[in-house]
Amino acid sequence: RAKQAGGGQAAFFEQGMGEAAEQRFRVERELRHAIGAGELRLHLQSQVDVSGQVTGAEVLVRWQHPRDGLVAPGVFIPVAEESDLIVSLGEWVLAHACALLAQPVFRERRLRLSVNLSARQFRQAGFVGQLRAVLAATGADPRLLTLEVTEGLVIDDFDDAVAKMRALAALGVDMSLDDFGTGYSSLAYLKRLPIQEIKIDRSFVHEAPTNADDGVLVEGILSVARHFGLRVVAEGVETQAQADFLRQRAPDIVYQGYLFGRPEPDVQWLERLTQPA
Ligand code: C2E
Ligand code: MG
Ligand code: MG
Ligand code: MG
Questions:
Q1: The organism sits in which domain of life (predicted)?
Q2: Residue 48 pLDDT level (bands cut at 50, 70, 90)
């Protein structure tokens, strides 16, 4: 039954641990071990412009579990977020993403990497200093790095978030508002947040060509983004109709979605990029 959920998630639900709390505890314990044991993997999903040119990728973490196979972040990120584990996991991801970004191909081809930040990680007092240290240690170009945060993270402590975003902007790092449109007061925040990019949530992208309400919402988001000079990434683009809808209204949009490529292991993504089939 649970196997249908596919690979990694399955076994987590087949251990006869009825209690959700117990399962969470087990995930937490195994994940704590996994970070040091080198079981985390970076997968990359391409971002492409309307001409089909790859502009970069989003970094999506996976857990290569010794027994359960490749586990998706939906299973372990929420667990990690309930403890300090998300901080060490986030540090691991950021350090390895920056090491990847330091490879010459990114500079040579002006490719960007986007990394997801969780609230607890971003709120750490030393976050900006830590990132600066990672950039220096790896030699990654901060101008090729984008950090994705969610509205919820910003709302919880607006002034602190703005101060951190300014400090990050001073480093040359771009900030992106992820899953845009799913939170509250989205449009009002755009006026006050020092961000460079928004990612339209895939729920709007999916319905835009077929549902007039979603279509108008997407048009509104695009128009506001244009006004504020923000780069727009559309997430979850799966059909040509969705891509066409967006391109007709925003020729400088960046697509991300299964239509253009699934997340794949970092090594594989780099190989494909440097020796196209
Ligand atoms: P997200 O940042 O919104 O990432 C996009 C998610 O949408 C990814 O799921 C991606 O695989 C999926 N996706 C991409 N294209 C399509 C599409 O065309 N159709 C559909 N249906 N889905 C698509 P994934 O990899 O399972 O990641 C889920 C979430 O886990 C991410 O959502 C992000 O919030 C979180 N996450 C992933 N990696 C990290 C990380 O390193 N740190 C933190 N804090 N969170 C992470
Ligand atoms: Mg994201
Ligand atoms: Mg997203
Ligand atoms: Mg999302």
A1: Bacteria
A2: very high
| Residue from 230, 264, 267 nearest 250 by CA | 230
- Residue 99's alpha-carbon distances to 84, 109, 118, in angstroms, are 23, 17, 20
Q: Which of 4-13, 33-42, 43-52, 91-100 has the lowest mean pLDDT?
A: 4-13
Question: Counting ligands in written order, which one lies closest to the CA of residue 180?
Answer: 3
Q: How far is the CA of 172 from the centre of ligand 2 (A)?
A: 19
Ligand 3 centroid vs 2 CA: distance in angstroms?
26
User: Which pTM was predicted?
Assistant: 0.93
Q: Per residue in 158-211, pLDDT tens?
A: 899 999 999 999 999 999 999 998 876 667 788 889 999 999 999 999 999 999
Could you write out the DSSP letters of every residue in 6-21? -HHHHHHT-SS---HH
Q: How far apart are CA 194 and CA 201, in angstroms?
A: 20
Helix (H, G, I), strand (E, B) or coil at 242: helix
**Beta strand 264-265 with 254-256: parallel, antiparallel or unpaired?**
unpaired
Residues having C-beta closer than 5 Å to ion ligand 3? 178-179, 235
Q: How many helices (DSSP H) and strands (DSSP E) are in the chain?
A: 14, 10
Protein residue with least CA distance to atom 21, ligand 1: 236
Q: How far is the CA of 212 from the centre of ligand 2 (A)?
A: 26
Q: What is the CA(16)–ligand 3 centre distance, in A?
A: 33
State whether the Cα torsion 32-60-229-131 is positive or negative: positive
What share of the chain in percent tops pLDDT 90?
81
Give ligand 1 pocket residues (Cβ under 6 A). 45, 60-61, 72-74, 77, 90, 93, 116-118, 148, 178-179, 202, 235-238, 257-258, 263
Instruction: Kindly provide the ipTM of the predicted complex, given to two decimals.
Output: 0.97
